[in-house]
Automatic annotation (TrEMBL):
Signal peptide: none annotated. InterPro entries: PIGW/GWT1 (IPR009447). One of its GO terms (molecular function) is glucosaminyl-phosphatidylinositol O-acyltransferase activity. Its main location: membrane. This is Uncharacterized protein. One of its GO terms (cellular component) is endoplasmic reticulum. The keyword Cytoplasm does not apply. The chain crosses the membrane at residues 20-43, 78-98, 104-122. Keywords: Membrane, Transmembrane, Transmembrane helix. It comes from Cocos nucifera (Coconut palm). It is found in: Membrane. One of its GO terms (biological process) is GPI anchor biosynthetic process.
């Protein structure tokens, strides 16, 4: 019985060596990555709410929409534009930050939070 001394998986030592050198993720990096997602959603929501039917004032847009009865919600182009904006403003940055730009997580989180603060100041 020669199988007693041999492992079943010949690459087991390579896998153990790879896993033993991993240090994991710090709490600060987890906080930075989790701050990016809600900030992107808030920025996207504010950008779509600020421009309803081409009006920058939300109350004026609601009144105009109710007055003439025409709304952009039934037009397929508005859906396509909203979907494209959601993809470009939310999905793509999240995918990039979690994969390709993972080494730049702190910088990306700082930039997104600064952009969010700029949006808050600009709305006042």
């Amino acid at each position: 019985m020669d199988l007693i001394g041999k492992p079943l998986n010949p690459n087991k030592r390579l896998k153990e060596g790879f896993v033993s050198n991993l240090s994991g993720t710090s709490m600060l990096e987890i906080a930075a990555l989790t701050a990016i997602v809600p900030a992107l959603f808030v920025i996207r929501q504010w950008s779509s709410f600020a421009r309803v039917n081409g009006h920058f004032n939300a109350k004026e847009a609601v009144l105009k929409k109710n007055d003439n009865g025409a709304s952009c919600t039934k037009d397929w182009r508005c859906y396509a534009v909203a979907l494209a904006m959601d993809y470009l403003c939310v999905v793509m940055p999240i995918l990039l930050v979690f994969t390709v730009l993972a080494e730049w997580a702190y910088t990306c989180a700082s930039l997104v939070v600064l952009l969010l603060l700029f949006c808050i100041v600009a709305r006042r």
